[in-house]
Prior knowledge:
The chain is α/β, with parallel strands linked by helices. It has two domains: about 5-240, Phosphoenolpyruvate-binding domains (TIM Barrel, Alpha-Beta Barrel), CATH 3.20.20; about 245-295, no CATH class. Helix content is about 45%, strand content about 15%. It has helices at about 15-25, 50-65, 85-95, 105-125, 140-145, 145-150, 165-170, 180-195, 210-225, 235-240, 245-265, 280-295, and strands at about 5-10, 35-40, 70-75, 100, 130-135, 155-160, 200, 225-230, 270-275, 275-280. A hairpin with a 2-residue loop joins strand 9 and strand 10.
Amino acid sequence: MHARRALLYMPGDDRRKIEKAASLAGPGRQPQGGVDCLCMDLEDGTALNRKAEARAVIAAAMRELDFGNSERCIRINSIGSGLEHEDLAAALAARPDTIIVPKVENAAQLTAVSAQIEAYELANSLPLGGIRLLAGVETARGILNLKEIASADKRLEALIFGGEDFAASIGAVRSPEAIELLYARQALLTACAANALQAIDIVCIDFRNPEIVRAEAEFGARLGFSGKQIIHPAQIEPVQTAFTPSDEAIAYARRVAETFEAHQREGRGAYALDGKMIDLPLLKNAQKVLERARAAGKL
């Protein structure tokens, strides 16, 4: 599965910002090897009276720009907005890697989009399942229906939590600590873990302060998120660093995996390593560290 430590949004109608984002993509262009995901946005990032222009700008950018190894995502408008069908047709014609569906509230919305993607793949002799699907969960109804949403479709690879929209949907006042979002974030994490999906965390709207986004990203990584949404190139480095295991963490995870296997061969269960008890849950944590390191290109 593609690494999604940072998912960078840019307005779909702003060619200059798309060009800037493309210039940051690919190995060597960032300390962590380039931004993982670029999302050209037809939804919130584009004004209502500029949707058609945004579709045209995105189509041209997809034809003309080199996005390196970054995942090329297009976010359509939400199901029921009246814009989603035209958005999806234009997005598919641009041949993206991934379609992002925002404000998903039930499984049927995802299966309907997936069916349209499959029809496009069949009509154009493309590999079935080659276009990926990510879903934004941003409302109270969406959180309540996470079990069904997370298992809706085999094309689905990640759920994205929209903190600002969720807070608005329940009438919460956003705080720097985001305590009001903790239940929903953990609910989304649990649904993702149960269905082998990636979980992508909230946006930090204070893009001028790298230390705030760094702290927020590090907290999200500790919770178990795979990555974080970002809205400015300055957020790439602190976010991708936060979601990349350190060399020390990777070395320790390897030791846990190797010693656990050795003890199992000897018929021994729990054992001590560096003064700590190691058992199956600790092995699973070590395996997740190694998986993240592999996805980030460190293994």
